[in-house]
Amino acid sequence: MKTLLFIASSFFLLSACNSNCSQNNENDAKFTDTKVSEKKEEKSDETKSKGYNIGDEATDFSLQNVDGNMVSLSDYEDAQGFIVIFTCNHCPYAVAYEDRIIDLHVRFAPLGYPVIAINPNDSKDYPEDNFEAMQKRAQEKQFPFVYLFDKGQKIYPQYGATHTPHVFVLEKENNRNIVQYIGAIDNNYENPDEVTETYVADAVNALLKNTEVPKTKTVAIGCSIKN
Length: 227
Fold this sequence. Notes:
- The protein is an alpha+beta fold.
- It folds into 2 domains: 49 residues; 168 residues, Glutaredoxin (3-Layer(aba) Sandwich).
- Helix content is 40%, strand content 19%.
- The strands form 2 sheets. It has an 8-stranded mixed β-sheet with strand order 1-9-8-4-5-6-2-3. A two-stranded antiparallel ribbon has the order 7-10.
- A hairpin with a 4-residue loop joins strand 2 and strand 3.
- It is globular.
């Protein structure tokens, strides 16, 4: 009798254990699936935060120009596209490229690709990049292009800009601004006479000819954006 009771008791405990273990396994699986799902969502959010890629549509913006007026891409009704350049006053790389940025605008604005320069830096910690300093610099260099202030630093993260200068060439397609090139202006920031690859000029010339952009992405060389 005792043997039968022991066997029955053991069978009961084994059944209960199997049931609990099964439930625990299900819970563990749900927990694992949840974690995997959370990681996928985190990775997705991280990817989104990196900004635009080639072929993406760039949203419009409204930023203050050094002349006090608000400027949007939609203001340029006759433009075929834009050379959007995130740049600033104090970065030596940006300063080294100022004359070449002026040249890009002079060359391509009449052909429908104006330069849109945007200062993305936090001017609280970097007063050299505040709005008044931007106005002064634009007057000193006689910038022929707009020089906009990314107040609140809301635009540069959308683009995924990380350095000054950092260029995004946009092409207008049915009133949509499509990203066609991202990266550096050329391959020698130190000496314009030793440049052998003019990435931005090559991209715009290709778009004007309706041919393939030779290099759609390069590494932006410059100072990190200050935030």
